Amino acid sequence: MKKLFQQYYLNLFLTDRLFTALGLCVVLFLLKFFFAWLGDIPEIATGVLLIFFLIDVFILYRVSEGVDAKRFTSKRLSNGDENPVQIEIKNRYGFGVNVRVIDEVPFQFQLRDKDFRLHIKPAEIKSIHYNLRPTKRGEYNFGFIRAYISSPLGLISRRYNFDGAKTLPVYPSFINLGQYELMAVSHHLTAFGIKKIRKVGHSSEFDQIKNYVGGDDIRTINWKATARKGGLMVNTYTDERSQNIYCIIDKSRVMKMPFEGLSLLDYAINASVALAKVAMLKEDKAGLITVSENIGAVVPADRKSAQLGNIMNVLYKEKTRYLESNLEALYAAVRSVVKQRGLLVFFTNFESLSALQRQLPYLKRISKYHLLVVVFFENTELKALSSDPAKDVEGIYHKTIAEKFMYEKKLMVKELNAHGILAILTPPQKLTVNVINQYLALKAQQRI
């Protein structure tokens, strides 16, 4: 009995068309007091409306499963990217129906407008497509798919609740990894913002000896092999491989600053995943270290096929902390984990020169053993403020302070370079491209 009550009563909703018809009946009853010639018309109209109401209930409820709906998504969502979602609805009634679909998206999106209206013919299947852009990593819970079905009469609507409950993890941005994979092997990289790097000389890693063909560098002729073979033979070389590339991500409070919905930590994580992908395509080993007041996750460098998945599984739940980073602990971790010289890309942020100088002694000690690249961020709001013309004295003051902070950022780059530490000062939206540019440049210059 309870199930029957829930099936019929709780899922039955009156429509605006029914209330309009009832209002007209009420008006007819009122007019009957002034116009006797109306006679039994109000009662007849009300009776007809009641008959149509019962007919509408019957035709909607005579089929137990009149429609079917399913949600299709990927197994995981990509943070900061547009992720496609599809809802497929099939009409099993013998007549066309009007459908209102409400999809219960995860609360993190704070969306109340995923409300779709469509008309579906008998036995027809229609699809609804929309995109979701998460801005935080973690687990997202989808709820029900609620479909409100109305017949051509349109006096009532029947609600169907389809259990679309699903928990999806939101991983660091992976949708564009295919694009960065192209960057690593393509000769036409400028279309993606990747600079074309001129190689200095050739790599010192020997590959093979082959017959000379027109266009080969005559400096690579192997004279001993030429004498034995009786024809010109040349040495060929390949890029040096199996270098250790570690992304070090600062999780302290300086990485909590938001930009276009994502925190600086999210931008650093997305760039780390892309750099790891490109490094492994270049046959280098990719690893990961996270640090805040203590050392967090450590993924030793490797180039096996599952390495990128291991890195993403570690990163998708990482969150910013509220204390300052312990670079002394980072130095100890680097010395114990990274056994041979490699490239360390440290994603952090400095808002003042004094903040950099506090951490500089530890950065210098790390750079003695490894090629260290420190990546920190431009404050784009300050840049916009400094470029706007000042309209009053207060505006002049704000502009002067903004220019002072921007100048300090440039001083930080010079300070790091003066101690043999490479630095990248970048806007958040250009972080991934700038980091990959730097890696490819160092690779071409044979500095790693």
TrEMBL record:
Give the UniProt record's GO annotations in the biological process aspect.
cell division
Q: Does the keyword Membrane apply?
A: yes
User: Which UniProt keywords are present, listed alphabetically?
Assistant: Cell cycle, Cell division, Membrane, Transmembrane, Transmembrane helix
Q: Say yes or no: keyword Lyase present.
A: no
Q: Where is the DUF58 domain?
A: 209-373
Q: The organism sits in which domain of life?
A: Bacteria
Give the transmembrane ranges: 44-63
Q: What is this protein called?
A: Cell division protein DivIC (FtsB), stabilizes FtsL against RasP cleavage
| Species this chain originates from | Pedobacter kyungheensis
